[in-house]
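Structure in, sequence out. Go:
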């Protein structure tokens, strides 16, 4: 199958004019290039179209098309006004007031009011609404008690007439407006029927038309959208699990955009370079080193691991140079990142010296857990295993399904765990608090079990700092401090590589999963 599709890609240049004509004809018939229809894809069926149940990327992306939050992100991760056209924060960072924009209506024609925001948030927090990710709303005073079923109201929400709503938080949180751009904080109509997750009604730029499970979802543009109707008339989202099937469908004119498989990077750069779009992702690939297990408790050993692995070589040979070498945990596109910080240099002599100083001159044995379903990360694990062996660190690679591997890492059962972390919200805090604060150990995201009271205090201070420049300066300081302690083997920040159909304009690679709403995307020349 893969070889057949591989040859199809190679044939493109020999029939370029004929195939391009076929692409355009397919576009007019509702294919990849648009005409009046755009075609995107997901790798699996969304869990639901109810934002209260948004726990996965496909659900979150579809909810972003259908619904609005008080705030929203653009494709570059910038925070923008949504249903609220402006907001203010108190000087102590404890109270936020959001003012609703005028003239917003749900798809069924009902006007938006501040009470709808209140009602929607209570619905998410209601313990009878099971299975959602409620954490973006838990900073609101009383939200945790309501979600636990021990309170009848959320005391930190105050409706101010029809046009404003205020939130009082349990403690200052500068990134709270970004939390409200998460899909779970989307506003739904006052009456939500039992089949809402299958037949949703929102206020977003696209209206729901049809969902054929494990096949496709169809949306029509909302002509009355408050930010202007989408440029295309309709959007189809197909379910296409296999990466090489997706590239074949793209070349056949049945997808508007496609992510390029790692193994095809060089070929696409050579054959279709003018179709490609690159953007550094808000994502980090790393090897978590369990700071509570065996020799890895010693920071000298963890630094030795960083010096013993030739990360640039692995990035080139396995990841096809689709990444930026990590000099910390915060991606370079975010404030607080330091792109000039010296990296741990590949130096096996330094690695051996550090191991001797830590009493590990003869090396030691560890297990490296990795997901058996991710081919590229499997190759990364093998490369790390071979290079650590050169300094006496004997690595057994344990391959498990993704959920079992992550569960072992969260429980602290893995010496090393090869992972990638995707931003939930575009802010340096999302790469510090969940990954390195001691309150986040285990299930919270800190699977290196790193714990440092000074780091905890600095992270808490940063979260309470409203001034963006001051907060980002704290992020840099925290990232530097953690980097010196080497709780990870720092690898890289991936660079996403996509192809955009030549008959489509206006699409951009989103750095955050809910940053692309397809409103400005249109067929070229139409």
């Amino acid at each position: 199958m893969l070889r057949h599709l591989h040859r199809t890609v190679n044939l493109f240049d020999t029939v370029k004019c004929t195939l391009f004509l076929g692409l355009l004809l397919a576009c007019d018939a509702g294919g990849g290039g648009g005409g009046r229809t755009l075609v995107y894809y997901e790798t699996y069926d969304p869990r639901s179209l109810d934002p209260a149940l948004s726990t996965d990327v496909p659900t979150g992306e579809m909810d972003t098309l259908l619904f609005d939050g008080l705030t929203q992100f653009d494709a570059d991760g910038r925070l923008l006004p949504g249903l609220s056209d402006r907001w203010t924060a108190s000087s102590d960072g404890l109270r936020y007031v959001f003012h609703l924009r005028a003239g917003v209506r749900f798809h069924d024609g009902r006007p938006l009011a501040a009470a709808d925001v209140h009602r929607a948030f209570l619905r998410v927090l209601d313990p009878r609404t099971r299975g959602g990710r409620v954490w973006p709303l838990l900073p609101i005073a009383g939200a945790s008690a309501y979600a636990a079923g021990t309170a009848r109201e959320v005391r930190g929400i105050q409706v101010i007439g029809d046009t404003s709503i205020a939130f009082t938080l349990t403690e200052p949180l500068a990134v709270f407006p970004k939390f409200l751009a998460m899909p779970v904080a989307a506003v739904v109509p006052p009456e939500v029927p039992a089949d809402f997750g299958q037949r949703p009604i929102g206020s977003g730029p696209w209206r729901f038309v049809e969902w054929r499970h494990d096949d496709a979802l169809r949306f029509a543009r909302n002509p009355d959208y408050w930010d202007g109707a989408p440029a295309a008339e309709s959007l189809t989202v197909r379910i296409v699990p296999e990466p090489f099937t997706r590239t074949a469908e793209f070349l056949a004119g049945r997808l508007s955009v496609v992510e390029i498989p790692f193994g095809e990077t060089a070929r696409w750069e050579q054959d279709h370079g003018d179709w490609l779009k690159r953007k550094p992702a808000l994502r980090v690939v790393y090897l978590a080193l369990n700071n509570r297990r065996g020799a890895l408790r010693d920071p000298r050993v963890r630094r030795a691991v960083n010096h013993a692995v030739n990360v640039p070589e692995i990035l080139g040979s396995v990841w096809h140079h689709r990444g930026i070498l990590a000099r910390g945990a915060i991606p370079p596109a975010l404030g607080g990142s330091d792109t000039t910080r010296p990296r741990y240099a590949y130096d096996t002599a330094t690695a051996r010296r550090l191991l001797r100083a830590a009493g590990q001159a003869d090396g030691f044995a560890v297990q490296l857990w990795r997901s058996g379903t991710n081919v590229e990360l499997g190759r990364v694990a093998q490369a790390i295993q071979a290079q650590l062996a050169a300094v006496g660190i004997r690595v057994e690679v344990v391959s498990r399904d993704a959920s079992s591997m992550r569960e072992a890492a969260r429980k602290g059962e893995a010496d090393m765990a090869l992972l990638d972390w995707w931003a939930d919200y575009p802010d340096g805090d999302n790469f510090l608090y969940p990954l390195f604060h001691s309150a986040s150990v285990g299930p919270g995201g800190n699977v290196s079990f790193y714990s440092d009271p000074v780091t905890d205090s600095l992270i808490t201070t940063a979260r309470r700092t409203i001034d963006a420049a001051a907060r980002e300066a704290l992020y840099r300081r925290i990232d530097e401090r953690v980097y010196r302690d080497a709780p990870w083997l720092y690898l890289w920040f991936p660079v996403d590589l996509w192809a955009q159909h030549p008959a489509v304009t206006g699409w951009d690679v989103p750095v955050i999963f809910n940053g692309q709403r397809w409103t400005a995307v249109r067929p070229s020349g139409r």
